[in-house]
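Supplementary Methods, section 5.1.

A reviewer requested that the exact input to the structure prediction be made available. We therefore reproduce it here, unchanged from the version used in the analyses.
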Amino acid sequence: MRPTAPPDYPDDPIAEPVHKGRGALSNETSRYDAEKRIRTTDGWEAEVAAAAEDDELPPLRTTLTRDATRTILARNSSPDIPFDRSINPYRGCEHGCIYCFARPTHAYLGLSPGLDFETKILFKPEAAKLLAAELASPKYRCDVIAMGTNTDPYQPVERELKVTRQILRVLSDFNNPLGIVTKNHMVTRDIDILGDMAKRNLVEVFLSVTTLDKDLARAMEPRASTPQRRLDAIHALASAGIPVGVMTSPMIPGLNDHEMESILEAAVDAGATRAGYIVLRLPLEIKELFEEWLRTHRPDRAERVLSLIRQIRGGELYQAEFGTRMKGEGPIAQLLSARFAAATRRLGLNRTRYRLDTSAFHVPESARTALVDARRDARQMRLL
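The structure derived from this sequence is encoded token-by-token as follows.
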């Protein structure tokens, strides 16, 4: 397990050098904090930058905290997404993708959506047990469960913790269908479970490939698998008979949108049969984090990228309205949609829509017995 010592960075992050292996450049207080840290300088960060190799600060350690949640299925009613339930084995994500729309959720924990989001990870050790209890409930009605729609189920800490793998075993035992989105080659570790589920039409996996430029990927999503490793994962999954697709997301006008067709072509060569895309979303604190990153890592094109984003967001950096928040609006967004449609037709993508099987769902006898025992124990505790 990763070390759990406190991260070695100050509460008031004023230094400009980047932390090696991290996406965010700062750690501003969350929107719920009564007191706000203000960036200022006394010249010390310049000394730090001068002393640090390649203007980088020492790596930050990842800390792990047990999440004491009592439920594991998250529900939603958004008309923009094709599922109503999901599982997040982790809160926060060590991949450190600067654009991640889940970053603001760390504010609910009293933590920063900046560096805290990628260095202070909460994990759910009881996830599999909680899931089995929820699936065994007489009130549960089977449908596809999504993983990877908020934080990545295959982020680096999963290698040791194996929370996601335990969840997969439960879903397989119950014959409950599953959709996965990930940026990590680690998904191939679970081909044994996923391949067996695929034979029963219970799983579909998407690899998110944002760019084929390894240098851009290293800066933008520092701890995710390299683009080539993600394409290798598509090939491995497809070779194992697992339905696999590619998400060219997020598309960022002026930064990576010119790669859309190249990414789709590479994914098809690797074995992908389905594809999707989402344009960059910058809700809440992500606007400031992304702009800070952009001006540091791509200063020559920062103004153009920000201008193009505003052109697809009605003059703002973000609009949250259903129906447009995933695709944007205006001529640039329409052109991106047309390009995606033309490329998928040309490459033969999305010709088949996988309809995962919900009819085979069943509650194993062991899970049914465990639920009865748990309810009996709960009643006895109330009587004490």
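The two ends are 38 Å apart (CA to CA). These observations are discussed further in the main text.
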